[in-house]
């Protein structure tokens, strides 16, 4: 069958006739009817993840203040923040902590409140207490400003996360004889558990052939349309307005003994133009290789020690055999969350709430 | 009739050094299984016990403890899993020693089996979104 074009898909979207399927639905349909049928029946595929991000920030502008202030430093609910791109901007990393946090000195630290939690509070409509300090100048004479602010009162607020937003399929285990507290959760001694990241069949960045979804499709972070920035040295940065986000998908995280972070849902809408686009969507969880990294000695020392290579399916079963012993596995990425978010984005596209005018990427390449 | 129940005993500081468990065994003929024992810097104690024996003896044993000033709570009220807050990430499943927190498969949704919980409280700290709370 001949290749579809982005123009074709956009016409369908504008008529609300585009056929959207989740990554799992495409996989299942292919099993039943084969790839030709999938290409005939599906125009757009939604793949997503709901994982803890390794890093990210919120940048926002505080409400118009007169006389003007040029921010040199500030605080949000007691968390120090640095200036952003403009005079009245703040930059808040998801891992930033309040001055009162013990910073893991009382080990393992609980990290009950951090940048990620502030983002969750803002998106859920709560007010935060902002304090801004500037050293004063002729054009920015004000030296201090503070006030309670909610997201609605802020002119703009962007969440920035690097792709793959914590969804790279990787696993960790602990060979030492004491429990360690890592970005992959608590790893018990003597390979007591293997924790892993990744959303298997829903994984957006595994399923996106040549990043077509990122470049020509669409990305939605917590249901807000995202912009995709290509980094020359490789990789992508994703940004979306916090003001358009759904609070269900933005959660501050407290990783015991490790730090504060953010769990945020990212969906990539992939246009199915030709057979090659389908190939990554047909990889089964049995064919996704995941490396189990040693996290107690090798990783902290900057070395790589791969204990084993297993499939995602094996990890997903809840138990694996590692070095001759059976051990439990636990995910960090929410599989049920990825599934639900895929469905939500699919429904919103079908109902015309999203993409009713077509794919943004159409401006770059019309087919 | 034989009964078997898990209870949580709270000891005020004045009673923390008294051998109540001995009396439960000796006087009321109950089989005890200590699941967890804690004493805080204020000398207040908390004991998670599984008690089994004849129903009458069980009731009498509990009354005895109450009249001596201990607070007794059924275990179920201690750990509360908040389904609304849970993101179903699964980190708790590797931490829970009894499998009380587990995945319903293939849906990969977390569920909490109160009967298996021994109130070790490891989950409270492990849960990244604090979806598990201890209620006293």
Indicate the topology.
The complex is a heterodimer of chains A (367) and B (136).
Chain A: H1 6-14, E1 20-22, H2 23-33, H3 35-41, E2 44-52, E3 57-61, E4 73-76, E5 79-83, E6 89-93, H4 115-123, E7 128-133, E8 144-149, E9 157-162, E10 170-173, E11 180-182, E12 185-187, E13 193-197, H5 204-207, H6 212-216, E14 218-221, E15 224-230, E16 236-241, E17 250-255, E18 259-271, H7 275-278, E19 289-294, E20 306-311, H8 312-316, E21 319-322, E22 325-331, H9 335-350
Helix pairs in contact in A: 2-3
Chain B: E1 2-11, H1 20-26, E2 31-39, E3 45-54, H2 55-67, E4 71-74, E5 79-81, H3 91-95, E6 101-104, E7 109-112, H4 122-126, E8 132-134
Antiparallel strand pairs in B: 1-3, 1-4, 2-3, 5-8, 6-7
Quick gist of this model?
The complex is a heterodimer of chains A (367) and B (136). With 367 residues, chain A is of the alpha+beta class. Chain A contains 9 helices and 22 strands.
